[in-house]
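We modelled the chain as a single entity of 717 amino acids. Its sequence is:
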Amino acid sequence: MGSHESTVNLLDRSASSYLRSARHQPVLWHPWGEEAFARAQSEDKPILLDIGAVWCHWCHVMDRESYENPELAEILNGNFVAIKVDRDERPDVDARYQAAVSAISGQGGWPLTAFLTPAGHPFFGGTYFPADDRYGRPGFKRVLLTMAEVWRNRREEALESAGSVMAAVEQNENFSGRGSSSEHGADHRLSLALVEKIAGSILKQFDPRNGGFGSQPKFPHPGAIDLLLEVATRTGNEQAREAAVFTLTKMSKGGVYDQLAGGFHRYSVDERWVVPHFEKMLYDNTELLRNYVHAYQSFVKPEFAHVATEIMRWLDTTMTDRERGGFYGSQDADIDLDDDGDYFTWTKAEAQAVLLPEEWSVAGRYWDIGDLGDMHHNPQKNVLHVRFSVLDVAREAGITLEEAVERLSAARAKLLEARAARPTPFIDRTLYTSWNAMAVTAYLEAARVLRIDGAREFALKTLDRLLVQAWDGGARLGRVIAYPDERNSAHVPGNLDDYAFTVHACVDAWLGSGKIAYYRSAMTLASTMVERFYDRTALAFVDTPLDDVEDAKLGALRARRKPLQDAPTPAGNPTAAAALLRLEALSGKKEFREIAEDTLGSFAGIVEHFGLYAGSYALALSRLLLDPVQIVVTGRGAEAGKLEAQATARFAVNKTVIRLNSRHLTEENLPDALAETIPHAPPPEGVNAWALVCRGRSCLAPISSPDALMDALEAAV
């Protein structure tokens, strides 16, 4: 290997933060693309595929132990063509090879390490391999030499294995539960009973001691929580209410929640939510923000509003481009490999050094900071979590509740200031389209429920940037709005998630602003989504464009995926179906409803087996089966504000609150279905604001009293 090659590899051309972090490694990495596959074919070499992420701790460990090791790099470069993929940038590639490696080894995750034929078909794989044999795992050097030998001397075995793995991947991704049904989704299994079944399956996994679902490691499952909130408010199901409320309460008191800055870490390694994996993902926080907003909407618990505003404060201060709009992708867990969450954790001495004794007496007890902490690598390090109520701590300290709150507030500010002086974990400033669209929706919902105008303005600024920088105004939407260094850019085509979440964001922006241009963008993108992603034979959406022939030739991308499971973001098919149902209620476009119904019908026979991972499906199905309820609030001033607040109270998946002023009440400024009714509804005499409640295709007489509106909604929702 020449000196030039050892200085930089082909990842130097990449825009992704994760790929660029490996550009000086001695491995001759290629980005995913034609060039790498052509080289593998021409040199008759197998491919070593590494899929990871910039926030992934064990990806960095494997980088340091193996890919930065000159001896291993030499073996790798001599026997394989090496491809590195950023799973955040290419979720389509990741999903297929996760399924493949899971079929081979029974496990998945990151780093994903797969050995492929030159055509990209996997014949062996795993996740993290140590450099040498340890942890009960074979060393990476032995794995590399064995796989090189298999390709040279036992190639038939490798090809046979690759063939069966690809067949398993294609079978796995093409399941369909559709039975006999007549045209346009009259599938007899599409009923609210199926929604209840999925909710029941989730409740069976509820942990009544700690909140959450299952045992460790514990993930938040926002889709499942939203479903329980929806079922609880619609049916009065006490078990669903208790599971959702208890889970949200326990998570917000745990170490999985950043007690100082706000925001949630990715998951908890224990069932009590105490010790997290410390990376923080945008998509977890947008969906959890919605959970806390919906719970506050329904049950008016101030602590849920408090958590929601803290999540937003963390996003506002750490994870956003305030000037131009946009939400960053993730914050890393660690500073380096010798650190395990040290930025976020505290020894007793570290905390005492920055607090006054009277502050320490409250903060130490409240956040359970002791001599013996929670972390394996340094038992003195504590993960801040809440064990006692502020009232209990106040009583123990012999002070009033107000004094305890004041001291705790002062302690939080001081600890946060001291933490800010520490080296900060890396923030990936990539703006991903789907994740930003999710953030826009979450912020607009929070702005309306919690009355935060700044959140609404920033959400619209972000969406405006997305629609200008990621979309061509027609059929093409990119996966990325902007990379951290705009001198390095790449065009990655948008996937189903990017289109579906952006449609939702545009609908929410119209609801939040009254600007008809957002609604028109939603209609254009939805039509494009159907045209490019809807498989009219299978009656479901695929995750990559049907017309994307070039990239579809490469490796496992030839397998058509029809995403159904929330893992971890809401799944593409129910998200797309829900977007079409929202637009059908506004536009009257029947085809959108038919496609949504057929899509949900495609999975009706199997979806109940997905339980925790089918929350988004059950919510979309509820939206299909329940009559849409629209509350149009018209007017200005305090009276309109009171009507809007009343209309917003209680989360319901089939409810849409639309705030308009007089200039919006013309047919050209309204979606088609509303243009037929709203301009012709006679406003009540002598009032500044009024509400129109429509259920299905019929509307009540205009209402000007909040109490009368509450009564109307009780009957309608």
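As a brief sanity check on the tokenised model: Confidence is low (pLDDT under 50) at residues 1-6, 178-186. The radius of gyration is 26 Å.
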